[in-house]
Amino acid sequence: MDELSSFQLGWAALIFTVGFAIRNLAGFGAILLPALALFLPLAKVVPVVTLIAVISSIGIAVRHRRQIVWRDLAPLVPWTLLGVALGLALFDRLSDDTLVMALGVFVAAFGLYSLWQGEQPPRERRAPRWLIVPPLATFAAVIGTTFGGLAGPVYGVYLEWLKLDKGAFRASMSALLVALGTLRGIGYLSLGFFDQGTLQLAALALPCSIVGLVIGAKLHARASPRGFRRVVAVLLTVSGLALLLR
Contact, 197 vs 2, CB < 8 A? Predict the structure, then answer.
């Protein structure tokens, strides 16, 4: 693949910084992928976002490893492996235009769902574990591997079902994202998606993501998480529609 232009690198730096600031504020950084996909090929974006996500999550997982609910995460493993295999097959075989179109549909739908869910009262989830784990874990891994992210909110459904406290939720989510990111990262590497342009983007993304996380941490106390998630949901919807019209 050709090297990235100065314009692409400049916008990528801005998006990685803002995206990781949003991740600290809103709890997820789903806006990264659609924003980057507007002007960069997903074949470059997905491996880089995967690498940076693993690096940013591994510290939390290691530091709070005693709070990880390993026994409750174990049932997700076989279905996650299946989802990664399916996701790698889709990522390798589908054209970039097809992937961008699918990403646009998914992101716009997810944004609209997030807006709708934010207005609904909390519901008690009573579905048995054996019924929700296979489709949820497989879907999370397929989405995460095909698009390089967006698995967190899906895994969050299961972690909320477990009724974990805030610390266990965060630690367990980080462990899941590290495991999924490592598996799909190995897959991208084996398929040859880490090239010069990808490594160039990764070298730029790492310091920008650190700056973004610091900014997000400083703003966290001043912002309303619920209100900010609503803003992010609107941005996701708009960016998803922009991808469809690209």
Answer: yes
Cα separations (Å) of 1 from 129, 150, 193, 197?
A: 44, 25, 9, 7
Count the neighbouring beta carbons within 10 Å of the beta carbon of residue 60: 17
> Which amino acid is residue 169, in one-letter code?
F
Burial of 122 (0-12, 13-18, 19+ CB in 10 A): exposed
Please write the tens of the pLDDT for every residue from 61-95: 898 899 999 999 999 999 999 999 999 999 999 99
| Cα dihedral 121, 124, 129, 130 in deg (nearest 10) | -80
Q: Cα–Cα distance between 145 and 151 in angstroms, integer?
A: 9
Which of the 8 DSSP states describes residue 66?
G
pLDDT value at position 116? 81
Q: Parse the chain into domains and list their residue ranges.
A: 6-244
| Two structure tokens written together for 121 | 């009262």
SS3 (DSSP) at 224: coil
Please enumerate in sequence order all residues whose Cβ is within 8 A of that of 130, keeping only pairs 6 or more positions apart, or say none: none
The contacts found for 65-70 with CB under 8 angstroms, 24 or more apart, are: 65/171, 65/175, 67/167, 67/168, 67/170, 67/171, 67/172, 68/168, 68/171, 68/172, 68/175, 69/162, 69/164, 69/168, 69/172
- pLDDT higher at 239 or 72: 72
- Give the whole-angstrom CA distance, residue 52 versus residue 65: 20
The residue assigned the tokens 């944004």 is: 111
Is pTM beyond 0.70 here? Answer: yes
Contact 242, 38 (CB under 8 A): yes
Q: How far apart are CA 107 and CA 238, in angstroms?
A: 9
Output the six-digit token pair for 246: 């690209």
